Amino acid sequence: MFSRTRPLMLLVIALLLCFGVAQSATLTGRNTVEVVQVLSGDTFIVKHQGETFELHIKDIMCPKKGQSFFQEATDLTTSLILGKTVTVEAKYDPRSRRFYTDVTADSRSLRYTLLGKGLAWAYNTSDENIKRYEKSVRKQKIAIWSQGQPVAPWDFTPKKSEVVAVNSDTSPTTKSKWLIAKSSDNTSESIVFTDSYGYSNGSKNVRVVDVKSDATKARIKQQVLQRLASSRYDDFLNAVVRIFVRNSQGSGFFINGKGFIVTNYHVVKGYRTVAVLQRGHEEAVRGTVVKTVPSKDLALIEIDSGNDNYLDLSSRTHSVGESVMAIGAPEGLDWSITRGIISAVRTDDGKFGQSVGTTLIQTDTAINPGSSGGPLVSLEDGIVVGVNTFGLRATEGLNFAVGADEVYDEFKDFL
Questions:
Q1: What number of other Cβ atoms are within 10 A of residue 356's Cβ?
Q2: 164, pLDDT greater than 80
Q3: Is the dihedral of CA 313, 317, 323, 326 positive or negative?
Q4: How far apart are CA 323 and CA 328, in angstroms?
């Protein structure tokens, strides 16, 4: 009986494997692709095996939209690769969820072409040749380097298109407030209804009338909501949660849109279920502790509902002096932000209670009871550099976070 069924089983397995390969195109490794769109000097879209992928040129970063020389960098990359078939050797970084590659255009690396024209910075690279080349171009003071001290793209905050109220009144039919608004990037006017007038965070019910285009309606609505928002840090704050157990509380943050939340082990120690409160929600939901790593003071919680706001884990090397912020609920004060710098990046030798070899980010950013488990976020690129863990109470400004690399290593199967 076994000898008759075995060939059939092998055939089924082979068919399943072939089906799986056919259904999942991958770009990792060396591939020939068609460039179908250029988004910026260092970012473009390619088509491969019927699917599209966004690629980023490794080791450099070009000006962002809104910065000087953004268009020049975009135009240069467009002229060299758009509509062409190129060979890429892409590497996927699961922490940033991006593909990075180099591209050869006109028999030269596109990285060096952009750097040589003064249209890119060396970024997150260990390649000494790239660093030296950027340094030599700086001395020539061309393009971005002609501006003296140009703002690096990772420090640049683009100006958002705002909606400016020019008139307001109360609707006689709906009794709700309305305003005539003008977008700062054009001269068109629209009537925007809200359930309460003013730029308060409480108003989220927005209707746009007298506009035919659905796309324009959506754009105007988004602009109004941005203006109503109470903080430019809302996306970060909305990714952070409060965690409650019987006699204590802490913080945590979403690492993807599937409902997985990272926190400290000491926050959930001894509990298999916890209460999770999201920002803007009136009631907490049940969270299940799905994995703990006591030796690194890390834990992973899952809730049934996902969250569109989540934070990416850093995959780059961080420098002493880099500006960071910690988000949490110190002493129960909801969704608070404290700012500071990275004081040092250390490897625990056992004196701090983590397993030997654990990456610890030392910071002067205040981390108090209730903030444990919250994220330590780089203000340079908005990526999580660590999980706030503890502070030495007897010493001011001596606080620690478990490095993002440790979080990724322990929970990568859930990302």
A1: 10
A2: no
A3: positive
A4: 17
pLDDT tens digits, residue range 9-47?
545 444 444 443 333 356 777 888 999 999 999 999 998
What's the one-letter identity of residue 362?
Q
In 24-51, which residue ranges form alpha helices assigned H by DSSP?
none
Q: What is the pLDDT of residues 167-190, one digit of tens each?
A: 344 433 333 344 444 444 443 333
Side chain identity at residue 143, one-letter code = A
238: helix, strand or coil: coil
Whole-angstrom CA distances from 150 to 120, 156, 158, 254 are 11, 10, 14, 34
Give 232's contacts (C-beta < 8 A, 6+ positions apart).
157
Average pLDDT over residues 222-241: 66
Which residues make Cβ contacts (< 8 Å) with residue 186, sequence separation at least 6? none
Tallying the residues shown for the chain, one arrives at: 415
CA 227: distance to chain centroid? 22
Q: How confident is the model at residue 128 (pLDDT cuts 50, 70, 90)?
A: very high
Structure tokens at 217: 């309606």
> Is 114 in a helix, a strand, or coil?
helix
Phi-psi region of 136 (alpha: psi -120 to 50; beta: other; left: phi over 0): alpha
The pLDDT confidence band at residue 191, using thresholds 50, 70 and 90, is very low
Rounded to a whole number of angstroms, the distance between the first and last alpha carbons of the chain is 43
**Ordered DSSP codes for 316-335:** S---TT-EEEEEE-GGG-TT
Distance, CA of 185 to CA of 196 (rounded, Å)? 25
Rounded distance between C-alpha atoms, residue 226 and residue 150, angstroms: 28
CB 329 within 8 A of CB 289: no
Q: Alpha-carbon distance 248 to 303, whole Å?
A: 19
Buried b (16+ CB within 10 A) or exposed e, 124-161: bbeeeebeebbeebbeeeebbbeeeebeebbeeeeeee
